[in-house]
Amino acid sequence: MNETNGTKQEKVKLAEKQEMIPKSKIKKSSVGAAWTFPKNPLEDAINIAKAIEEQNAGNPMKADQLVKAVGYNKSNDWRFLDLLRSANQYGLVLGSGAAATVSIESIGQDIIAPGSPKDRQEALGKAFRNVEEFKKVEEFYKGKKLPEDEFFENTLVREFSIPRDRVKIFKAVFTKNLEYLREFRGEHAQPDEKRQMEPASSGVIGTKPAGEGRQFLDSCFVMMPYGQWFDAYYKEIFIPAIKDAGMEPVRADELFSTGTVIEQIWEQIKKAKILLADLSGKNANVFYEMGLAHAQGKAVVFTAASLDDVPFDLRHLRVVIYDIKDPSWGAKLQANLSSYLKAAKEEPAKSVPQPFRFDSSAAKAAAGG
Q1: Looking at residue 236, what DSSP letter applies?
Q2: With a cut of 50, which residues of the chain have pLDDT below it?
Q3: How many domains does the chain have?
Q4: What is the per-residue pLDDT for 26?
Q5: Per-residue CA distances from 224 to 79, 288, 293, 332 (Å)
Q6: Tell me, what's the pLDDT at 260?
Q7: Which CATH number does the domain housing residue 271 bear?
Q8: In the chain, alpha helices (H)
Q9: Rounded Cα–Cα distance for residues 70 and 68 (Å)
Q10: Inter-residue contact 229 to 281 (CB < 8 Å)
Q11: Which is it for the CA torsion 172, 173, 174, 180, positive or negative?
């Protein structure tokens, strides 16, 4: 035995003694090894299947066409290839690589075009568990709270052989997926509850009775003032109108993810299919968020109690004016908002000021997506 090999064996023995790691669990460098779990969260990977459904009526698409539908330019872009590979690993689509023809699998179909909200909820659970590592970690921790980051990472390395240089990505994707599935179960967790793992049941993580969970994949981010009356408008008028337009309503005060408030808002603006802004009172925060949305090339539907609250340069866009003195103003506003939101989904460019109507791939690149 030469000195080099002897030194290596001594180091392995020392590691086993100090860390109590079985030989079978000691991982070599992952450089060059295939990724056995998705690099992208399920919510992002679903965009691959959605693009095929929306752009090609669900029929198989060539990668060079699909890449543009999800906001990139070239099929050999590593970001697109990672996203496509993730969609395959979740079982949403079949076909991976820059020259692939990609088709939607049954799990993907049940997520993007389900027969009922329950079908979508169950399909999301199946997609999550289609990744063997996610399934094993879920079973290991079911009914328990995930440990703090350092101890969770150590367990992933020792018990599940996740390479040390990939464990942070695994942890981030795994926990984001848990948060996403929570939304569809109607559980809006506070930050300190997000690490709780409930037992698996009926194809979906958790056994707690589900409340009114998320129903739609597309979201509509609402930018508006807060307060007694505005909060009532949001719950009684805006939410029904948005759901009638086939989107999930999201407001900043409902967000509980990590990061600063503006980081969370920026993330929701990027994710949203359409945005809704109530300009009543010329609230500075609303105008700031609206500027971020337009800079991202996003379609925004405006509403206000007075046309004077709408900047002159934006009055040519979709604006719904409501008059609270009208006895039926609430019903009229809800109907008009639903109609305008549906129209914005069909022709989003008409809800974007001309200088910001640029290719979505440029917006994605500018945002670092």
Answers
A1: I
A2: 1, 3-4, 11-26, 28, 190-194, 199-210, 360-369
A3: 2
A4: 47
A5: 34, 11, 14, 19
A6: 85
A7: 3.40.50.450
A8: 3-19, 42-56, 63-69, 78-89, 106-112, 117-129, 132-141, 149-160, 167-185, 228-233, 239-244, 261-271, 284-295, 329-346, 360-366
A9: 5
A10: no
A11: positive
C-alpha dihedral over 87, 92, 94, 96, to 10 degrees? 0
If asked whether residues 112 and 157 sit together in one domain, one would say yes
Distance CA 125, CA 131 (A): 11
The residue range of the domain holding 280 is 219-366
As a whole number of angstroms, the distance between CA 68 and CA 77 comes to 11
Residues 124 and 256 in one domain: no
Asked, for residue 245, whether it belongs to a domain, the answer is yes
The residue type found at 102 is V
Co-location of 227 and 176 in the same domain = no
Q: What are the tens digits of pLDDT across the range 51-78?
A: 999 999 999 999 999 999 998 999 999 9
Per-residue pLDDT at 33: 83
Look-up of token digits 């930018």: 223
- Cα 144 to Cα 53, 93, 119, 196, 350: the distances in Å are 38, 32, 27, 6, 49
Whether 90 and 223 share a structural domain? no
User: Is-contact 292 269, C-beta < 8 A?
Assistant: yes
Residue 34 counted as domain residue: no
| Long-range own/partner contacts, residues 264-270 (CB < 8 A, 24 or more apart) | 265/221, 265/289, 265/292, 266/292, 268/219, 268/221, 269/221, 269/293, 269/296, 269/298, 270/296, 270/367, 270/369
The pLDDT assigned to 214 comes to 86
